[in-house]
Amino acid sequence: MIEFKRIPGVDYEIDRWSEGIPHHPESEKLVRRLMAIDWECFRGHFDWKVGGDGDNGETLMFELDIFFDERDVQSGVRAPGGKMSDFRTLTHAEWMAEGTRRFGPDYDKWRFVCPVCGFVASVQDWKDVGHPDAVAFSCIGRWRKDGIDALTDGLHKGMGRPCNYAGGGLFKLNPVTVVFDDGIEHRAFEFAD
Length: 193
Ligand SMILES: [Zn+2]
Known about the structure:
Shape: elongated
Number of helices: 5
Bound molecules: zinc ion
Number of strands: 6
Order of helices and strands: HHHEHEEHEEE
Number of domains: 2
């Protein structure tokens, strides 16, 4: 037996299947690519299957989820215990109250964390790049020269640079749903600590 070292802050007992928690985006990406490579180059030797309870590709993804969770916690992408699945819904009034309680009434000083790269930006930062329309929605790396790519580099936190994640893109990762009085919902970044 190989000695198993547990990384503090990683949830090893997490049951993503029954709790309905999505896979780590990198597990998803890796296994889907491996499926294609397996068939294209190895005549389907492993025959990875995904989407059903007990599928071998799902188990592989669960194992990779832990691997990537460990990496994220160690590199500081996520606070220990933090999961990408910490989604919540607030009314606009509740959201305003929480922001004010955390950062005070000066909206420019409110800070949000990108769900992909972990970069913390203030409302002023979004204004500085000319995109107050994208506050807490798309990462400011989209408009900065030092921006990194969300898909290839965004999850490698520790670079200290913002990514080009777009809240309106294919992957809807913004964890906070803000419901306005007229029923319109807006998906936002989480407040920074
Ligand atoms: Zn980002």
